[in-house]
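Please, structure for the following, as tokens.
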Amino acid sequence: MKFLIVDDSKVMRQIVKKTLREAGFGDAEVVEASDGVEALAQVAATSPDMVLSDWNMPNKTGIEFLTELRASGNATPFGFVTSEGSDGMRARALEAGALFLIVKPFKAEDFEKALAAVRAA
């Protein structure tokens, strides 16, 4: 399985990668992007099986990235890993096509639960 981790913080990308390993995805391939612009290019170049994206980033936010991805016809499974998790954000994320929204700080169990359906597919 190949994950694309999108976050403007390199440290947070490393934390997400470490948490994925702890959640049982130690053999997964991981590619990274620092914003939505770079992420769109990575999706085209690497065809990930799953995208894990921050919401608030410079150049192109996570929700803008997801909206553009879906508008292009790309249905890659997508989840948010972000510091904000209001009901409004969750609703907007799901409406745009995200499968879940994990709020920072998170634990491996949060990833296990959110990714169970992806793992089963």
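The two ends are 11 Å apart (CA to CA). The first helix runs from residue 10 to 25.
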